[in-house]
Amino acid sequence: MHERARYLFIRILEACNADCFMCEFALSRDAFRFSVGDFADLLPKAWEAGVGYVRFTGGEPLMHREIVELVRAGAAAGMKMSLITNGAMLPKMAEPLAGAGLAQVIVSLDGASGATHDVYRRSPGMFDKALCGLRIAAGLGVLPRVNTVVGPHNYTEMPRLQKVLTEAGVRQWELSALKLDRSITYPDPGHVRAVCDAVYDADPVRLLVPMGKRFYGDTPEEQERYFVHSMTPRASRPLCHVVDDVIYVDGKYGRMYACSCLPHREGDGGPGGAPLREGGAIRLDTPAFREHAVLFRERGPEMCSGCSTTAAGYSDDVARLGSVAPWQY
């Protein structure tokens, strides 16, 4: 068994009902769906690979017609089940998902009210539905988390959003930097630090404090790379430990990766990661996957340019402490 329980991410569809400006899947109507049969085939291999946490991602997972059955199958197999959603369908789906064994729900919220979030996501009414769904899920015993994409357009919203999420009973919060195929420019990096340092340095007894590294970096070197070169904070040298604990499955293309950030950051050099199937059968921890993981374990802290704050913080916690608390990725 793997030393720490691993995270298995599965992109179960590409379709989405939101129109977020920063997302390649905005308003996608792609027909691909990861099947219950494929998941049943994958589960015993995941258990053998040391997986303890399964997270469904998309697109919008709640658009999958069999999402409740998928959650139920994973929970019945002993997995702690999670999914990430824009929250629009969560108020009506929270109860059946909780009944199926959902352990954690992650909702994307980028503004402190509908007046801003709904504009950023180009989806009227989404903020109120998402916050309502989070409250319902929390009341049913599902761990509520929010992921926020932060950029020049909304960083000043973070202190107010912090208070909104605290009052709503949200238990975890990730702030990750906006990533676009161009440089992200802040007119006044000092103002970003002045506004957001207070969010990170808040008293965790009174306010919800973000997980992982600051989205603009914890050290002067990280902050210079971010504000000057648009490079997000990444795992500290010498090694990235995330790749020891993560398997990301892209069901549509039949590929697997050693980090949830890698599938979205591929270049033009052909498919990355490793094949999910060998001889037609699903396999994890293949020699090809291990070779891929070792590459990023050794070179990720130098070559990665799209790391998330939770991934970077997770790796540094493993390096420093040897362990991490549940759901820290």
Sheet bearing the most strands, described? 9 strands, mixed
Low-confidence stretches: none
Helix content: 25-40%
**What is the strand content?**
15-25%
Widest sheet, order of strands: 6-5-4-3-2-1-7-8-9
Short description:
This protein is of the alpha/beta class. The protein is built from eleven helices and eleven strands.
Q: Which terms summarize this structure?
A:
globular, 11 helices, two-stranded antiparallel ribbon, alpha/beta, 9-stranded mixed beta sheet, 16% strand, 329 residues, 11 strands
Write the layout of secondary structure elements.
Layout lengths: L5 E6 L24 H13 L2 E7 L9 H10 L3 E6 L4 H11 L1 E7 L5 H7 L5 H14 L3 E8 L7 H11 L3 E6 L11 H12 L19 H10 L12 H4 E5 L4 E3 L16 E2 L1 E2 L2 E2 L4 H17 L5 H13 L8
Parallel strand pairs: 1-2, 1-7, 2-3, 3-4, 4-5, 5-6
Antiparallel strand pairs: 7-8, 8-9, 10-11
Helix pairs in contact: 1-2, 2-3, 3-5
